[in-house]
TrEMBL record:
InterPro entries: Ald_DH/histidinol_DH, Ald_DH_C, Ald_DH_CS_GLU, Ald_DH_N, Aldehyde_DH_dom. The keyword Oxidoreductase applies. The keyword Oxidoreductase applies. Belongs to the aldehyde dehydrogenase family. The active site is at residue 252. One of its GO terms (molecular function) is oxidoreductase activity, acting on the aldehyde or oxo group of donors, NAD or NADP as acceptor. It comes from Mycolicibacterium porcinum. PROSITE patterns: ALDEHYDE_DEHYDR_GLU. Keywords: Oxidoreductase. SUPFAM superfamilies: ALDH-like. Pfam families: Aldedh. This is Aldehyde dehydrogenase. Residues 18-479 form the Aldehyde dehydrogenase domain.
Length: 484
């Protein structure tokens, strides 16, 4: 598949109006692969946020009353349009956040698959009849929350449309989407395709903006629920703002996922899993950024991992041979290298691979190589903080109990990975891990669109995927009828 750069969409969608200017001003969007400005981003201010929420509120009265089958049909037309524009989404993913086209094909397809799954649930979620006395008819109604603020992170915006936005639409809610100003293009394309597919004006609004726009959105009295994907610090600020009005939240936050490799593991599968640190250049909440290896195979397996990572092709996202692109920004480079330098200086682990910004023909972009530390102290910053970059921390463990204790010794609880041919142990360890998702022997900790996905502890709460994704945006009302 040949993918070429495309013209990025910019602006805002408020109700039925596409706007090229807004009170928040503008921001230059820099291509992470080249370090050059590729677009001028329109930034929404509180005024545009208010108008978008009002537009969503105005559209909700009609959208919620659409027959569920009609809502499913229009959303399935949107999925068909997403599929038809797949190449454009892949190109925009490369341009807005540096995802290599080779990887972007899978990321975009994931968004389409999750969107399709959510659309098919639109006419299959209903209330139920409650057993009651002979003279009473008791039943429930599953009703949409109303207006949902969907605040997205920047590391996979094309997928986020299917994962975070489509379930709210399928449930009968209207949305105000605030994509990150670092990666707004995919959300704008999604919104345009939705309008062309027949989704009414006001049902989907897109307000590209910075922290000011986000603060105005979560504090708005017209918002009935907030769905946020991002980091802990921002989630804490959002939670504090929502607590004033008791606005319910769905939080999909970060991770520091442990990948546990026992001495009886299938080495080929375990190695492939360990290479997951390169996915999205390590900028993924679910990537296995901590590798726990049993003592008896530690040296041999670590040598295999570093050898494989040293061969990874890092380069231009539009080069079909690139499997790792740049990180999102110059500031991200500095932040990630700050972790690396502090780990070196504190001797938190032994640097085995990488550790410096890439130069040469890649020097204008924000490129880092796969970086590996061995014999890492599990109490160190390197092992405990979400670096959100291609940095792998490897640690030794002695036995099953030791591995589980190390894996759980973190504030995060999004995912875990287990490699062993002993299925009894696989089941025990999976149950003992304090996480929301577990991948065993190469199984993805993030399942398909029919499976629940979400974290525990500081990795958030609520679930995306399957029927549960729609239930996040539905309120249950009980109706009791006296038949006498």
């Amino acid at each position: 598949m040949t993918i070429a750069p495309t013209t990025p969409p910019v602006g805002l969608l408020v109700g039925e109006d596409w706007r090229s200017t807004a009170s928040g001003g503008t921001r230059e969007h820099v291509n992470a692969a080249t370090g050059t400005v590729q677009a001028e981003i329109t930034l929404a201010g509180p005024d545009e946020v208010d108008e978008a929420v009002r537009a969503a509120r105005g559209a909700f009265a009609d959208w919620r009353r659409w027959h569920p089958t009609e809502r499913r049909r229009v959303l399935q037309r949107l999925v068909e349009s997403m599929t038809a524009h797949r190449k454009e989404f892949i190109a925009l993913s490369a341009q807005e956040c540096g995802i290599p086209v080779q990887v972007g094909q899978a990321i975009v397809q994931m968004g389409i698959d999750w969107a399709d799954s959510a659309a098919t649930w639109a006419d299959k979620v209903a209330g139920e009849v409650i057993p009651s006395a002979a003279n009473v008819f008791d039943y429930t109604l599953a009703e949409p929350y109303g207006v949902v603020a969907v605040i997205l992170t920047w590391n996979g915006p094309a997928a986020s449309m299917g994962i975070s936005v489509m379930p709210a639409l399928a449930a009968g809610c209207c949305v105000v989407v605030k994509p990150s100003e670092l990666a707004p293009f995919s959300a704008l394309l999604f919104a345009r395709l939705a309008r062309e597919a027949g989704v009414p004006a006001g049902v989907i609004n897109v307000v590209t903006g910075d922290a000011q726009a986000g603060a105005a959105l979560v504090a708005h009295p017209g918002v009935d629920k907030v769905s946020f994907t991002g980091g802990i610090a921002t989630a804490q600020a959002i939670s504090a703002a929502c607590s004033r009005r008791l606005t319910p939240l769905l939080l999909e936050l970060g991770g520091k996922s442990a990948n546990i490799v026992f001495d009886d593991a299938d080495r080929k599968k375990a190695l492939k899993s360990a290479l997951g640190i390169i996915v999205l250049s390590g900028q993924g909440c679910i990537v296995p950024s901590r590798l726990l290896v049993q003592d008896s195979i530690y040296d041999e397996f670590v040598e295999q991992v570093t050898g494989a990572l040293s061969q990874i092709r890092v380069g231009d996202p539009f080069d079909p041979k690139s499997v790792m692109g740049p990180v999102i920004s110059d500031a991200a480079c500095d932040r990630i290298l700050g972790f690396v330098d502090r780990a070196r200086n504190s001797q938190a682990g032994q640097l085995l691979l990488g550790g410096d910004r890439l130069g040469g023909e890649l020097s204008d972009g924000y490129y880092l190589p796969p970086t590996v530390f061995g014999d890492v102290d599990n109490a160190s910053e390197l092992a405990q903080e979400e670096i959100f970059g291609p940095v792998l921390a490897i640690m030794r463990f002695t036995d099953e109990e030791h591995a589980v204790a190390m894996a759980n010794d973190t504030q995060f609880g999004l995912a875990g990975f287990v490699h062993t041919t002993d299925m009894s142990r696989a089941v025990r360890v999976s149950a003992a891990l304090d996480v929301g998702n577990v991948g065993v022997n190469g199984g993805g900790a993030m399942g398909g669109p029919e499976a629940p996905f979400g974290g525990v502890k500081q990795s958030g709460y609520g679930r995306e995927g399957g029927k549960g994704a729609l239930l996040e945006f539905l309120r249950i009302k009980n109706v009791m009828v006296d038949l006498d």
